[in-house]
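Minutes, project check-in
Item: structure for the 312-residue chain
Input as provided by the requester:
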Amino acid sequence: MGRRNITHVSDFILMGLTDSEEIRLVLFTLFLLIYLITVLGNVGMILIIRLDPQLHTPMYFFLSHLSFLDLSYSSVITPKTLDNLLTSKKNISYLNCFSQMYFFVFLGATECFLLSSMAYDRYAAICNPLHYPVVMSTRRCCSLVFGSYLIGFMDTSVNVLCLSRLHFCNSKIIYHFFCDGPAILALSCTDTHDIEIIIFISAGSTLVVSLIMISVSYVSILSTILKITSTSGKQKAFSTCTSHLLGVTIFYGTMIFTYLKPSMSYSLGKDQVASVFYTIVIPMLNPLIYSLRNKEVKNAPNRVMKKRKDSK
């Protein structure tokens, strides 16, 4: 592309979801409500798990980190989106844009491997129940969580390092509601082929490897459950997995639809709908999925209140 019109970009313009003022007001109200539910749901989940000793188990240890990731994930995207829906000024600085993208990729990649760790926990609980306390020791749980964050850090470092080397010409308009990698790549006036391959390999390996780990865990779980003779035993085993399996299906479904497809099939409208779902809606759904289908979590507030009354 040569050296034509290559400039130093100080800020970008986020075009958002729509130009209609009426629709933007509706979306602002809807997204604000979703964000408030997300904050209350995830903070509530973290507090309940921390305050109730009965929930101090590996499964809820991972769940508390999932709630932390969802809360952070939503807070990276939603406040700026709400601000853009209300104001006509849609600028975002170069630094803030890449910071948003950095934390978005970091938290997303970390969540992939945290969901894999949760699947491994369910595998250990159902397929090897007698050795479960040894297999899922505190040290191993901490190692799995630390490993998830480390992989997320490595993945986002590769992505942001590649994207930060791009040059931009005259256009600085991002046709999206947040600083997403494909939208940034579309702005560059330099050849992005090599960078796209590196990012595809990095993001693809994160999704595929974590999904393989989850699939292997659940194939083993299903095989073990089918060997259980009693119907009540099968139902109890299935009930411990359904919430996690539902959360995994929703999360990976939208991620794969958005990122693991050829760039020629890119559709702005469809991609934005999918992006709204996994950046704004899913962080709200996870605490609802894991609490509404879980008697232990639903009964936890009563146990905490009773314990506080007894202590007084």
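Outcome recorded: The chain has ten helices and three strands.
No further action items on this chain.
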